[in-house]
Amino acid sequence: MSSSAATAPAPPTTDETPVVTTTAPPPLEPADKERAEDLKNQANECFKNKDYENAVRLYTDALGVDGNSAIYYANRSFAYLRQEAFGYALNDAVQAIKCNPAYLKGYYRRAGAHMALGKFKLALQDLEFVAKRCPNDKDAQMKYSECKKIVTKMAFERAIAVDKVEKSLMEMCRDLESATIEADYEGPKLEDGKVTLDFMKHLMEWYKNEKKLHKNFAYRILCDVEALFKKQPSLVDITVPADCKFTVCGDIHGQFYDLLNIFEINGLPSETNPYLFNGDFVDRGSFSVECIFTLFGFKLLYPNHFFLSRGNHESVNMNQMYGFTGEVVAKYSQTMSEMFTIVYNWLPLCHCINQKILVMHGGLFSKDGVALDDLRTIDRNRQPPEEGLMCELLWSDPQPQNGRSPSKRGVGIQFGPDVTKAFLEHNKLDYVIRSHEVKDEGYEVAHDGKCITVFSAPNYCDAMGNLGAFINITGSDLTPQYKTYAAVPHPKVKPMAYASSLSMLA
Q1: Serine/threonine specific protein phosphatases domain location, by residue (predicted)?
Q2: Edge-to-edge strands of the sheet including 468-474?
Q3: What is the 3-state secondary structure (H, E, C) of 239-286?
Q4: Is residue 351 among the annotated active site residues?
Q5: 192 vs 93, 195, 196, CA distance in Å?
Q6: CB-based contacts of 53: which residues, under 8 Å, 6+ apart?
Q7: CA distance linking residue 284 with residue 461, whole number of Å
Q8: What is the pTM of this model?
Q9: pLDDT in tens, 75-126
Q10: Which of 19, 28, 146, 359 has a Cα-to-Cα distance from 301 of 20 to 30 A?
Q11: 3-state SS, residue 352
């Protein structure tokens, strides 16, 4: 994409991301300019090798030498996007535009951050600006066109929502499940409409061989699991008997073959081998359909011994961007993707184990004094809001320093050890388990052992080189035991194979 400063319409501005033209800084000494460029080049190499943490560090060092380089800010913004630090990426994109309002990659990066945050109208403003400046750039034109389609579709859906009579999932299922099951279908079949252990074993083997569950059974699973989730509160209490093992897993992100490996290592779910999967079952990995039907199937088979929490990726915006919607449409239909949205809105938001361990996908809260009863009564049947308890349960992250800070993601907050300690004392809890962040070892223990992160997708996106992990506890000893494992081979389908092309902005 060209970054020339040809005559063009005025840059887009918003109240959230103002463009400010500043006085040009004094020129750098040649030695400083050379040093900054060398740091940038080192950072570029790290980025090329997908070492985003060191790329960020080196771009930061370059900015320490030359703090007025639009290129350095835009490059660091892109590295932050790859780390899913969308809030930081947005700030850097804004800084790039301030440094040089004619530098088009600044607008491109700002569009990427807005897309990642689900702010499609703001992204469209920047993409339109870039497209007008680069009329011959096919990639810029395509991304502008795709974003415009999304914004138009959303506006149309809002316009017809008033008159539209929504069908229940049960009604949708009745309309669809009457389809004939082909005589040559040899895959798993529900028995009298119910999930059995034999069905689950057959399903996993069927999926392992890259085959598809018949749509009739897929629709029935969605319908039945929604009915089950609707009966549960937003905070589900779990009792683990003294002599029983309990396993907590973090993000799976569509990595089906790694999910099978967890069951290989730790045993299949059963009434004596219960599990909790802590959100982000889908997106990024290209076997998300296989993951979610496996997890939903076990939930139906063992409703009181298999638990699922909602993650920030169980949402419409994330699914549109990072592949799940595209995968469902490719493997089934647009109608089924809408059914998943309905089901995800009923997923519980958190779980409390033996009244001592709170498990949520994201983290803690922007205000003090939050009680477990406040979490039990959250009205969760909706898309995640941009603030409040539900948002923070899905999006927040821990930080090493005390207090609270704005989120690096641009949604939720960052909370320190003092916040964790106060929350635990207020609710008479021992510690919290959360997920939501890639960790090199698959887990991380922070806040004096009181805040544990577990992430169960090894070599995330076939790129990060991290281990996966899960946590075992027993009812009589709630001390966490960590099991780590490496990624296993999977068929040659790349991550993000079904994602929107706009996801490449982020």
Answers
A1: 213-489
A2: 306-308, 275-277, 245-249, 468-474, 481-485
A3: CCCCCCEEEEECECCCCHHHHHHHHHHHCCCECCECEEECCCCCCCCC
A4: no
A5: 56, 9, 10
A6: 83
A7: 6
A8: 0.90
A9: 999 999 999 999 999 999 999 999 999 999 999 999 999 988 888 899 999 9
A10: 359
A11: strand
